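=== Per-residue structure ===
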Amino acid sequence: MSFLNVSGIAKKGEGGFLMSNISFSQRKLEKLAIAGETGAGKSTLLKIVAGLVQPESGEVIFEHERVRGPAEQLVPGHPAIAYLSQHFELQKFLRVEQVLNYSNKFPAKDAQKLFEVCQITHLLGRRTDQLSGGEKQRIAICRLLISSPRLLLLDEPYSHLDPDHKSVLKAVVRDIGRKLKITCTIVSHDPMDTLSWAEKMIVLKDGPLVQEGKPLVIYKEPLNAYIGGLFGKYNLIEPSMFRTFSAIPAIRRSLAKAGQKNIFIRPEQFRLVRESERALKGKVKEIIFYGSHRELQIAVAKYTITVRSDKEGIEPGAVVYVTLGRGPLSFV
């Protein structure tokens, strides 16, 4: 049996079912990310797993035992599952060491290791009202880890953090799994936070779980445009566009497989090449600079595609030629 097994979970929201028939599993130390649009039920699902919200149906089995909801026990929650809300609070005007000492049962050596993993040793003497948002996040996570959980659930841990504090917190989350051997599950609205970390992802939409798999597969082979859009920009080559784009060999070879489905192409799958009969001629409409790369809006006949490129010297109005790199295409 899996470390965590969620089966048939359903929960009603104000307008009806917030989620329905949600089932998935998680292995010990497997890094799991949950994605979905706002209102898809991601936070509620984490709370159900933690035993903080009672589902309408279904069950959560953690380490071979059923997690009971608040309707079944006086004190909500599971002692081995820690949940950090995106709206957490720390006691005001206390020193960090005071906040942590209230619940710390670790020997001094073990506590010191925990502080080092969470990168808060230098913060212990500060008051909580003197901390930045990223520092508060790390203190809140450390406060949970003092209870020795075996599963840590983090709800939007990187929201509203500047790049430096986000980078530090990401390192902390990685070390929690690697050094402390605690299994983690994360909800985040930013695909860059989850694609680079997770080993498995699940995607929720309008109630059910709509896709589950490795990040690379979900990114490159989404089952529909909704899933594709959660993880970045994309191009859809619709059947009405097939004739125009069939000059690209990879697309021409894929037309029989596509049928009446759309061909799904990420901007980085396109490549700019020299003039060729095997490439599409286009005109650059707009260029957006992102530092490590540029995003080009290119008019091809009466259509516009988004192409990612690191080539310099291209200006709006330039004539370019576009083809596809190697790799299979997806259809949605």
